[in-house]
Amino acid sequence: MSDEFLRDALAGLTAEPKSLPGKYLWDETGSDLFDRICHSADYYPTIQETALLPQAAADVARLVAPGVTVVEFGSGASRKIRTLLDALPDPSAYVAIDISGEYLEAAIRRLAPDYPGIAMVPVCADYSKPVRLPISAGPGGVLGFYPGTSIGNLEPREAGLFLERARQTLGPSLFLVGADGTSDPERLQRAYGAADGLMAAFHGNMLTRLNRELGADFDRDNFRHDIRLCHDPLRVEARLVATRAASYRLGDRTITLAAAEGIRTDTSHKYTADAFRTLAAASGWTPRALWQAEGGSFNLHLLQAEA
Ligand SMILES: C[S@@+](CC[C@H](N)C(=O)[O-])C[C@H]1O[C@@H](n2cnc3c(N)ncnc32)[C@H](O)[C@@H]1O
């Protein structure tokens, strides 16, 4: 992992403009900070999706047979999955895929006692690469779940490739995917640029990881968190901006930042329902159903892949 982390970090920090891949936001600290962000009143995606899930889960439950295997990509704290597991007819297994290994194990330890009849299968893996399920599908087939705004954190081309890979991983299946469609600048500013400091800590943690895991010497105090609303396509970009010019060591390279130069640490793309359906169809999925909050400010899509 650390060879790849160093390679990716050097590639991003020696390019112009500078960036770091968002997947490195997720270690135990990053996952914990994100869970706290999800509980904040300004982080509307969790609030809206959580409100949509009971109806979506009840509708999906009517479409799957008993014994379904549920596979979640980017399972995080494994909170939303409870709504699905509670509604589905006798699910046989829950496969939780996440890159944040220790946090994943702890989330499954918390979940498992409440679902003694369901096999719990944590899989620490990077879903930007092919992932193979470690168990075969249950008698009720496979239901994929990719909630939150995670698909938006991938560049649109990467999101298309992710959906293709997910089709390979899941095989013939249904796939419930969340996609944020919010375009209101004030709401986006409140959610991503929140004044409570949690977003800043979440992004700043990436520098702590570079120092701890790769022996770099970034001075966190020299960076402030900033967001930018960009168009065509609509997205929020998060940056760590150097307050003064400085040079840092990373591997055998020196990374030099000018004053006010930013490092992009994450992007959150927003999709209208139609734009997401087009992306999914181009990746081999058939859109089957849609649940919408506030006329499309958050969308839960049900996709289907045939044999
Ligand atoms: C935005 S959070 C969503 C968490 C949760 N599913 C929710 O809806 O609240 C993204 C999750 O995906 C995981 N993740 C991010 N990039 C990943 C990758 N490349 N491979 C596997 N997991 C990843 C993170 O560790 C995190 O738990």
TrEMBL record:
Pfam families xrefs: Methyltransf_33 (PF10017)
Superkingdom: Bacteria
A biological process term (GO) from this entry: methylation
Entry's EC annotation: 2.1.1.44
Entry's Gene Ontology molecular function annotations: L-histidine N(alpha)-methyltransferase activity
Cited Gene3D superfamilies: Vaccinia Virus protein VP39 (3.40.50.150)
Span of domain Histidine-specific methyltransferase SAM-dependent: 7-304
Keyword set, alphabetical order: Methyltransferase, Transferase
Protein name: L-histidine N(Alpha)-methyltransferase
Protein encoded by which gene: egtD
